[in-house]
Amino acid sequence: MTQPPVSKPHDILAVPAMVHSVRTGAIGGALGGAAMALVANGYGLISGLGVWLPVNVIAATFLRDLQSASIDQLAQFNLAALIIGLLMHAVLSIGLGILFVLILPTLPGTPIIWALTVGPLLWIIASVLTLPLLNPIMVRVVDVPSFIVAHVVYGLVMGIYVARTAKVPA
Fold first, then answer.
1. 30: exposed, middle or buried (C-beta count within 10 Å: 0-12, 13-18, 19+)?
2. What radius of gyration, in Å, describes the C-alpha atoms of the chain?
3. In this structure, what is the dihedral angle of CA atoms 143, 146, 147, 149, given to the nearest 10 degrees?
4. How many Å is the maximal CA-CA distance in the chain?
5. pLDDT confidence of 123, banded at 50, 70, 90?
6. How confident is the model at residue 70 (pLDDT cuts 50, 70, 90)?
7. Confidence band (pLDDT; 50, 70, 90) for 38?
8. How far is CA 36 from CA 22, 130, 165, in A?
9. How many Cβ atoms are within 10 Å of 150's Cβ, its own excluded?
10. pTM here?
């Protein structure tokens, strides 16, 4: 009676020789987040709601008194909201950039294609699952087209940066 061949760990799990570094993901995420903020602030200026609305609405996740604020109040400068909103946006942008480069080796194709998928996917997750639970005011006041554009821009900028960055040994 013959024994079946014993599989070796390298037969089961393939690790790519070269990958994008975590640093690349962090920088790509930060650049994407900065581009996303420019889109949000551009919308604030074009709409007449001002540049403070996007950051105040993000901060409303933790500053719960902003949940009951009017649009006029959300359009005003708020130092606590600025600090919390920027910190939240930076942490999420950088964290998602790192997550992107960590899962990228498992995905076929180029980083740019996947980055363009990530932006809309993040928008769907945020709009349908996360925001209604964590930040209902954002659901009420966000301009959907600009929100979609901001997420696509995030993914595109992050993906271009990652794609243009040299890989490192795994």
1. middle
2. 20
3. 160
4. 81
5. confident
6. very high
7. very high
8. 21, 18, 20
9. 27
10. 0.86
